[in-house]
Amino acid sequence: MVTDNREKIRIGWLITGDDSGGVAQAVRGLTGAVHPLGIEPVVVSLRQGDFSDSMRAAGFEVRVLDVDPLPVLRGGLVSKLRLQLQVRRAVAALRPQLANVLRETNAQAVHVLWPNLMPLAAMAAYDAGITCFWEMPNIMGKYPFGINRRMTQHTLRRWNVTPFANSVYTASTLGDWPVKAQLLYLGADERRFDPAAAKAVNREDLGIPAKATVLGICARLTPEKGQAAILEAMEQLPAAYANTHLLLLGGPIESEFGNQLRATAQRLGIADRLHLVGSVPDPERYYGVIDVAINAYLGAESFGLSVVEAMMMGRPVLVHALGGPAETVVDGVTGWHVHEPTVVGFRAGLIRALGDREKWAAMGVAGRQRALEHFSLSRQAKQYVEIVRKRLGS
After folding, report:
1. Phi (first) and psi of residue 323, to 5 degrees
2. What is the pLDDT, as a whole number, of residue 142?
3. Is 146 left (phi over 0), alpha (psi -120 to 50) or beta?
4. For the chain, how long is the longest CA-to-CA vector?
5. Rounded distance, CA 72 to CA 121, Å?
6. CA angle, 324 as apex, 352 and 289 as ends, to 5°?
7. N or C: which end of the chain has fewer CB within 10 A?
8. Residue 85 has what pLDDT?
9. Helix or strand run (H / E) with residue 61
């Protein structure tokens, strides 16, 4: 990656400290990729945690506020409104402390992902006289009268926040008035997710027959990720596809849902065709085992980074085509779209995908090329730096 010789821009990345999943991956990926391009990230963590420790170990400057976590907005509308009041009180208390840290670190902007931390980052940035960037990790939920969207838009306008949306779909849930989000697709690390460089695991080590057809899902083991629907759909495939196996990367496997998946496979008589690996630090090594990657999220996925990672590894991808995956995967070219996230819908999608076996290699090549052109980490970093410099320059 080319190093940018212009003056460094210091940006405070606000995290909780124990961030995990997609948010942790997004922070770790983008901070590392923008550093050679003239951005100097300073991690500001609410408290000490595994993720803040890992960022310090990676060589980043880390400041810890040592405060309690802010409430996460969960439940129905009434519950979220009540929690919103708690968030406001917490923000009022933490705002001066965060503003002081931003001044002390000479930050020229603050970057935040978590929606419940965005108001805090925005107000502290305003007090410090700097810019706030909000990278939306999820779509905006649908509530009566669009109250969630309206409240968010009010905050963005009031505190002059620049939002990034990780897909056109995510941007559409925010709306474009009075503040329009900048489209910034997430990127997979093309150096890490390189089929020519990754050392694949052995099928035998996973208990998978050499000649089996392997479907793979890389996602947390939670009901909304659709693993159960794929398992049911796989059992209903025609006899010609009886040697199809399902490999699940993600955890926790020792959980209620993990046990449910095992029980379902046992009930369906396909326990030997279900393989739960758990969370792994090197998912790129497992794509050599997978023939068809799947994103079966039952709702609207804001982006779906695992989809792009699979494309980067030269694998065709079957996706529920709502949200980001409908934008990343080209139906019939780099994978297949399923429009109904049901057992019946996924069964039809699997039959279509398995019937295209002779096209898998070409689809994988097309998928990697598309990912390199549009969804690489280096491309995301370059676009981010361009937007940041333009925003701060104005």
Report:
1. 95, -150
2. 80
3. left
4. 66
5. 15
6. 50
7. C
8. 75
9. strand 61-64
DSSP 342: S
Q: Which residue has the tokens 């810890």?
A: 64
CA distance 197 to 215: 22
CA nearest to 294, candidates 206, 205, 361, 231: 231
Average confidence (pLDDT) per 10 residues, the chain, 394 residues: 73 96 94 97 97 98 92 67 77 95 98 95 98 96 84 96 98 97 97 96 95 97 98 98 98 96 98 97 96 98 97 98 98 98 98 98 98 98 98 87
β 213-218/182-183 pair status: unpaired
Tokens of 338: 């399923």
CA 166 to chain centre: 9
**What dihedral angle (degrees, nearest 10) is formed by the CA atoms of 293, 298, 304, 309?**
-10
Question: Exposed e or buried b for every residue in 62-88, given b needs 16+ CB within 10 A?
Answer: bbbbeeeebbebeeeeeebeebeeebe
pLDDT of residue 129: 97
Whole-number pLDDT of residue 7: 85
Tokens of 25: 């991956």
Structure tokens at 5: 């010789």
317: which strand partners? 293, 335
Residue showing tokens 């995908």: 353
Answer for the pair 105, 122: CB distance below 8 angstroms, yes or no: no
